[in-house]
Specification:
The complex is a heterodimer of chains A (about 600) and B (about 170). Helix content of chain A is about 40%, strand content about 15%. With about 600 residues, chain A is an alpha/beta fold. Chain B folds into 2 domains: about 5-85, ACT domain (Alpha-Beta Plaits); about 90-160, 2-Layer Sandwich (Alpha-Beta Plaits), CATH 3.30.70. Chain B has helices at about 20-30, 60-70, 100-115, 135-145; strands at about 5-15, 35-45, 50-60, 75-80, 90-100, 120, 125-135, 150-155, 160. In chain B, the strands form 2 sheets. In chain B, strands 5, 6, 7, 8 and 9 form a 5-stranded antiparallel beta sheet that branches. Chain B has a 4-stranded antiparallel beta sheet with strand order 2-3-1-4, covered by helices on one side. In chain B, strand 6 and strand 7 form a beta hairpin. In chain B, about 25% of the residues are buried. Classes of the chains: A alpha/beta (about 600), B alpha+beta (about 170). The interface between A and B is medium-sized, with 20 and 19 residues.
Chain lengths: ~600, ~170
């Protein structure tokens, strides 16, 4: 590799090229003008970088996430100093919580002005330190190429996450030596990919002995990549064990498979949560015992041995003490596990497993996702069920905002492939869905991309409609419109004696006219019997659509484990509505 | 695990690069842990590795959690609990200024001898003592000096290392 002389701005683009980045999301401004100038100059080359101009930097960050989450590649964003960076903070934090690889390049005021409260100056590395996996302020042009390569490495290896490289404007203009990525090695960061083989064997022995086992899988499987997904499917079928998934892990195992017993957690199925509660062996693959999953921690799966596969050592024993920790990449650990299982000719404990499945089937009979249909008003669950039925033959990418609609989407839309379900799980960012859908559509131009939204959430990043129009991205926005911040309303109903404090939106825009104002198509449906036709109309329209699905206002998401309760204390539909929630539970979120 | 709150000494080996101390301290303060003392210095000038020693109160569980979170920071190479009870050696240095005359002055001089403190500055009315030892020894010295004209104290904070052949 020849070391080449070039400007800082050119180095940024050269690094993009070297890391196979062909797509970025961004917004120009004073402190990134040299980089934007290079983008303009290379527009006429054979393979120009596709730059998607967002309408707000938060949009850029979520679009980069949508791109990364739907493709498994690193999402890249380019923003200016000051407000450009602060507007990106929500998306960076979102990516941090859900372990999504993002490289954010930010402009900074020239080095001699740093610390002077210059125009559009902010302490970018200080502000983003807790919400990035790592970040850098570049102070010497000759460090720039190394830092850019390290940034891509850190973002995408180990437990992935967002990184930020803050480049002062004078550095972007200076000329220095560009070194290629192959010569750069981070001096200390080496995530462990393979787990200890003796510990894998310990885990397999537990699996062979288990009488009431369950797989509990999470986003780590999807982050690990397609190999991990295939190996998971192989291992689950090899054992015949039931499998449940976190919100983030949906799609790693086919949602319509008979071994899949639904999502677990606060709004998971009855059978999944009961199985977690009563199992004698829990095999956690790439999940992190999040509080939405465990419920009351003291009563979490009290009688089980626990195996935990995670690439991040700090996840092990963080919340729940496990018996066999396997620190490594899911794909590597599963590959070794399957090999060892076969070579040692382990057998599962068939008779008790049959009994276990009988118990699970009993729980299934509760049909915890059933809901009462209505002829006159659309039930939100029904809307999503119909959306699923009418689109399931296609390879659909679904993003969501945050709230009731998100949970209903997770419950009623079934995914058979990874990376098709794109949701803000950890941070719970309202406004995530539309820009994420834009990112997913950019990564998959010919696929159907639907943002299942709520009427409150969608307004938080509605400006990105303009991005979708400009770049001809035919995203479909399916709004479950109940005029309430539904999840807030639900909690107020259950925890605060139905005092609906500021959770009703009195002045909503006319979403059909809003769509038209942006240059998109608007559809409104209020009657159940009009739904199918309208959904088909939405799918067939070649361009962005805002679909205003007016639904029953008082519907709640069930089943539900109330805060501070255990898995076996679920609320099912309306039967136990007046359940008391303890003061201890009320303080939880 | 023990629920007793006690002082823990945590050693952290980091790449000596800009912002690394802020990352470590930011993580600790951001999660609501307290810090009693903190020392930092480069310990390998060729590889540019610094050692940060943190004394923090907490239960064994909270400190272990803090250590695993510290290990998530990219430039952190290793973090470990090297508390005294866990076969660690802890040392601290203090500079102690005494302003007094007459009998008190003589007594402070006499006591400093017992503690093997050195006088590194003096006037007719003052001493500055330099004292090395365990944090407890320094606490005891300071307590004794209080009635004898203790004026000012500067302490380095704890440095610690494991006993025997064990390496971090």
């Amino acid at each position: 590799m020849v070391n080449i002389q070039m400007t800082g701005a050119q180095m940024v683009l050269k690094a993009f090229e070297d890391h196979q980045v062909d797509t970025i999301f961004g917004y120009p401004g004073g402190a990134v003008l040299p980089i934007y100038d290079e983008l303009a100059k290379e527009r006429d080359t054979n393979q120009p970088i596709r730059h998607y101009l967002v309408r707000h930097e938060q949009g850029a960050s979520h679009s980069a996430e949508g791109y990364a989450r739907s493709s498994g590649k690193v999402g890249v964003m380019l923003v200016t100093s000051g407000p450009g960076v602060t507007n990106s903070v929500t998306g960076l934090t979102d990516a941090m919580m859900d372990s999504i690889p993002i490289v954010c390049i930010s402009g900074q005021v020239p080095t001699h002005l740093i610390g002077t409260d210059a125009f559009q100056e902010c302490d970018a590395v200080g502000i983003t330190r807790p919400c990035t996996k790592h970040n850098w302020l570049v102070k010497d042009i000759n460090d720039l190429s190394r830092i850019l390569h390290e940034a891509f490495y850190v973002a995408s290896s180990g437990r992935p996450g967002p990184v930020l490289v803050d480049i002062p404007k004078d550095i972007q203009f200076q000329t220095g030596t560009y070194i290629g990525p192959e010569t750069v090695k981070h001096k200390s960061y080496r995530p462990k990919l393979k787990a200890n083989i003796d510990q894998i064997d310990d885990a397999l022995k537990l699996i062979a002995e288990a009488e009431k086992p369950i797989f509990y899988t999470g986003g780590g499987v999807i982050n690990s990549g397609n190999a991990a997904v295939q190996l998971l499917r192989e291992f689950v079928r090899l054992t015949g064990f039931p499998i449940t998934s976190t919100l983030q892990g949906l799609g790693a195992y086919p949602g319509d498979d008979s071994q899949f017993i639904g999502m677990l957690g606060m709004h998971g199925t009855y059978e999944a949560n009961m199985a977690m509660n009563e199992c004698d062996l829990m095999i956690n693959i790439g999940a992190r015992f999040d509080d939405r999953i465990t419920g009351k921690i003291d009563d979490f799966s009290p009688n089980s041995k626990k195996i935990h596969i995670d690439i991040d050592p700090s996840s092990i024993n963080k919340i729940v003490k496990v018996d066999v920790p396997l620190i490594g990449d899911v794909a590597h650990v599963l590959e070794d596990s399957i090999k060892l299982w076969k070579s040692k000719v382990y057998k599962i404990n068939k008779t008790p497993l049959k009994e276990w499945w009988k118990t699970i089937d009993k729980w299934k009979e509760k049909d915890s996702l059933k809901f009462a249909s209505d002829k006159n008003t659309i039930k939100p669950q029904y809307a999503i069920q119909r959306l699923y039925e009418l689109t399931k033959e296609k390879d659909v990418f679904v993003t969501t905002e945050v709230g009731q609609h998100q949970m209903w989407a997770a419950q009623y839309y079934k995914f058979s492939k990874p990376n098709r379900w794109i949701t803000s799980g950890g941070l719970g960012t309202m406004g995530f869905g539309l820009p994420a859908a834009i990112g997913a559509q950019v990564a998959h131009p010919d696929k159907l991309v639907i943002d299942i939204a709520g009427e409150a959430s969608i307004l938080m990043c509605i400006q990105e409609m303009s991005t979708a129009i400009q770049h001809k991205l035919p995203v479909k926005i399916f709004i479950i419109n109940n005029q309430y911040m539904g999840m807030v309303r639900q909690w107020q109903e259950l925890l605060h004696d139905q005092r609906y404090s500021h959770s009703y939106t009195d002045a909503l825009p006319d979403f059909v006219k809003l769509a038209e104002a942006y240059g998109a198509k608007g559809i409104r449906v209020q009657k159940p019997n009009e739904l199918d036709k309208a959904i088909n109309e939405m799918i067939e329209y070649d361009g962005p659509v805002i679909f205003d699905c007016v639904v029953e206002q008082n519907e709640n998401v069930y089943p539900m484990i109330p805060s501070g309760k255990a898995h076996n204390e679920m609320l099912l539909g309306d039967e136990t509505k007046k359940e008391e929630i303890s003061d201890e539970g009320k303080v939880l979120v | 695990m023990s629920e007793i709150v006690s002082k823990h000494t945590v050693s952290v080996l980091v790449d000596n690069e800009p912002g690394v101390l802020a990352r470590v301290i930011g993580l600790i303060s951001g999660r609501g842990y307290n810090i009693d003392s903190l020392t930092v210095a480069e310990v390998d000038t060729e590889k540019h590795i610094s050692r940060i020693t943190i004394v923090a109160p907490g239960t064994e569980q909270t400190v272990n959690k803090m250590i695993s979170q510290l290990q998530r920071i990219v430039p952190v190479k290793r973090a470990a609990n090297v508390t005294f009870e866990k076969q660690g050696i802890e040392r601290e240095m203090a500079l102690v200024k005494i302003v007094s005359t007459g009998e008190k002055r003589v007594e402070s001089m006499r006591l400093s001898d017992v503690f093997r403190a050195r006088v590194i500055d003096t006037t007719h009315d003052s001493f500055v003592f330099e004292l090395n030892g365990s944090p407890r020894k320094i606490d005891a010295f300071i307590d004794l000096m209080k009635p004898l004209g203790l004026s000012e104290v500067s302490r380095t904070g704890v440095v610690a290392i494991a006993r025997g052949t064990e390496k971090m």
